[in-house]
């Protein structure tokens, strides 16, 4: 230590002079508004498509279009906000979702639904990093690179989970409530020639919420102007963005752990989302009753995830570091999946209670792990590649989730799919048993543009116990941006 006083960072005028608390509130609001319409589509999606005359194979194809589009576009679009800005990319994502929900709510033809699902997947890819990157940008501009991020990230994750929970309840309950009114159930279909039915109301309401989201993003998220660019330069930077993202894990062991942990989370979510609805239907005896129970259970899961996110800073303080907090959180996920696996062959009240407890533990653990993982990630990656890094993390989760879902569906019913998912998460947890060292190139190699150099810990930092190093650049995108910078739940 030099003994010199630590001076506060100068506030960047490009961020509108926002302080940390204001930036946190706006980040939480953006997170909530983006995910609320997606939550509304969870409860009614399959039922709406069935009501439109689609078979199960077609419905599975619609969801595959969403997942594969999001996975294919994750890296190509991940660095886009690092080039043209966070706000325009978020606004584009909102407009895409607005169009997608309109197509899904009004479309009676398979091509319209598939197009809507594809646009929603593209919006998911675009939105996987910019809001969080904007928040970190703004906080760093106001308070410096050692500012506390964990609290804001935790509240943003909680807002995402709360939006999904509230959206699930609204989406499942609104058609039922409207159907109770005499004559109102048939009125939309009669008036629009079958174009609008009760089950399409949540999707159409979601389109309206997306409009509010776009207006809020454009008015409430100031950021510094970026260098002028052209479409050719943006498109030409896509290969560099993909290469930069792939280099992240190869260069830094800590980032590699975070990406592998995201993959383990994808395996857990795939098992839960694929296998839980069938267990709910078997418990209740009918698919309709099972769907209602699953909507309530999904809502409870999102609330557990929100609670876990709120507890993330406390878990980090209790365990001594963000890395140990991730280890403890993934241990909870492993326990939850194991309980779900051990109760597959019985539906007694005790077994059902244990299974519901396991379900809650899965989401509680994932909620607590997320903010701590991302806090570590942001301290390891610099402003020029932050959104790219978040996109690589999202890509890792979605690709493994897609493969794990196919695998779990091919396995015979019983404990095996659950226990395999638990094994995958346990393997991810064991990665955090030992502390990660500094990125490659430190301390033996002379510091270059991609090398980490030691940084004195900021007085009062909330990340005591975590390795503190200067962030490494994600690569070629460094020269294209100025020096500034959602639950585990998968929608659809």
Automatic annotation (TrEMBL):
<feature type="transmembrane region" description="Helical">
    <location>
        <begin position="292"/>
        <end position="313"/>
    </location>
</feature>
<feature type="transmembrane region" description="Helical">
    <location>
        <begin position="27"/>
        <end position="49"/>
    </location>
</feature>
<feature type="transmembrane region" description="Helical">
    <location>
        <begin position="350"/>
        <end position="369"/>
    </location>
</feature>
<feature type="transmembrane region" description="Helical">
    <location>
        <begin position="254"/>
        <end position="272"/>
    </location>
</feature>
<keyword id="KW-1133">Transmembrane helix</keyword>
<feature type="transmembrane region" description="Helical">
    <location>
        <begin position="56"/>
        <end position="77"/>
    </location>
</feature>
<feature type="transmembrane region" description="Helical">
    <location>
        <begin position="89"/>
        <end position="114"/>
    </location>
</feature>
<feature type="transmembrane region" description="Helical">
    <location>
        <begin position="416"/>
        <end position="433"/>
    </location>
</feature>
<protein>
    <submittedName>
        <fullName>Uncharacterized MFS-type transporter</fullName>
    </submittedName>
</protein>
<dbReference type="InterPro" id="IPR005829">
    <property type="entry name" value="Sugar_transporter_CS"/>
</dbReference>
<feature type="transmembrane region" description="Helical">
    <location>
        <begin position="159"/>
        <end position="181"/>
    </location>
</feature>
<feature type="compositionally biased region" description="Pro residues">
    <location>
        <begin position="441"/>
        <end position="457"/>
    </location>
</feature>
<keyword id="KW-0472">Membrane</keyword>
<feature type="transmembrane region" description="Helical">
    <location>
        <begin position="325"/>
        <end position="344"/>
    </location>
</feature>
<dbReference type="InterPro" id="IPR036259">
    <property type="entry name" value="MFS_trans_sf"/>
</dbReference>
<feature type="transmembrane region" description="Helical">
    <location>
        <begin position="193"/>
        <end position="218"/>
    </location>
</feature>
<feature type="region of interest" description="Disordered">
    <location>
        <begin position="441"/>
        <end position="492"/>
    </location>
</feature>
<feature type="compositionally biased region" description="Basic and acidic residues">
    <location>
        <begin position="480"/>
        <end position="492"/>
    </location>
</feature>
<keyword id="KW-0812">Transmembrane</keyword>
<dbReference type="InterPro" id="IPR053160">
    <property type="entry name" value="MFS_DHA3_Transporter"/>
</dbReference>
<feature type="transmembrane region" description="Helical">
    <location>
        <begin position="390"/>
        <end position="410"/>
    </location>
</feature>
């Amino acid at each position: 230590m030099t003994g010199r006083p630590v001076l506060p960072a100068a506030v960047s005028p490009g961020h509108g002079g926002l302080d940390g608390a204001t930036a946190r509130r706006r980040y939480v609001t953006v997170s909530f508004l983006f995910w609320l319409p997606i939550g509304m589509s969870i409860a009614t999606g399959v039922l709406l498509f069935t009501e439109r005359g689609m078979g199960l194979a077609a419905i599975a194809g619609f969801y595959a279009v969403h997942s594969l589009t999001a996975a294919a576009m994750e890296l190509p679009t991940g660095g886009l906000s690092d080039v043209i800005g966070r706000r325009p990319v978020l606004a584009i994502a909102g407009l895409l979702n607005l169009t997608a929900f309109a197509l899904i709510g009004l479309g009676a033809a398979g091509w319209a639904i598939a197009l809507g699902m594809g646009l929603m997947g593209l919006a998911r890819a675009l939105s996987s990093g910019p809001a969080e990157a904007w928040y970190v940008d703004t906080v760093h501009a106001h308070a410096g690179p050692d500012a506390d991020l964990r609290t804001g990230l935790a509240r943003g994750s909680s807002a995402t989970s709360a939006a999904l929970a509230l959206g699930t309840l609204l989406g499942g309950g609104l058609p039922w409530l409207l159907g109770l009114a005499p004559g109102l159930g048939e009125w939309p279909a009669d008036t629009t020639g079958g174009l609008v039915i009760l089950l399409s109301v949540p999707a159409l309401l979601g389109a309206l919420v997306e409009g509010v989201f776009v207006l809020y993003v454009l008015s409430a998220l100031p950021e510094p102007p970026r260098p002028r660019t052209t479409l050719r330069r943006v498109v030409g930077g896509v290969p560099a963005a993909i290469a930069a993202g792939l280099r992240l894990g190869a260069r830094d062991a800590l980032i590699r752990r975070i990406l592998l942990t995201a993959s383990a989370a994808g395996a857990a979510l795939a098992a839960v989302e694929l296998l839980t609805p069938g267990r709910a239907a078997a418990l209740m005896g009918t698919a309709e009753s099972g769907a209602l129970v699953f909507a309530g259970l999904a809502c409870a899961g999102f609330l557990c995830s929100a609670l876990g996110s709120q507890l993330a800073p406390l878990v980090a303080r209790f365990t001594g570091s963000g890395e140990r907090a991730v280890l403890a959180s993934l241990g909870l996920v492993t326990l939850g999946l194991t309980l779900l696996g051990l109760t597959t062959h019985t539906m007694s009240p005790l077994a059902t209670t244990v299974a519901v407890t396991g379900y809650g533990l899965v989401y509680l653990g994932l909620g607590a792990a997320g903010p701590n993982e991302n806090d570590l990630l942001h301290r390891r990656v610099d402003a020029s590649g932050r959104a790219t890094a978040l996109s690589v993390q999202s890509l890792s989760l979605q690709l493994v989730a897609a493969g794990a879902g196919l695998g779990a569906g091919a396995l015979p019913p019983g404990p095996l799919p659950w226990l395999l998912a638990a094994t995958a998460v346990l393997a991810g947890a064991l990665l955090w048993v030992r502390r990660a060292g500094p990125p490659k190139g430190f301390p033996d190699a002379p510091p270059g543009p991609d090398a980490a150099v030691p940084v004195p810990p900021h007085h009062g930092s909330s990340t005591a116990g975590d390795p503190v190093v200067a962030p490494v650049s994600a690569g070629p995108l460094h020269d294209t941006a100025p020096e500034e910078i959602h639950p585990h739940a998968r929608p659809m």
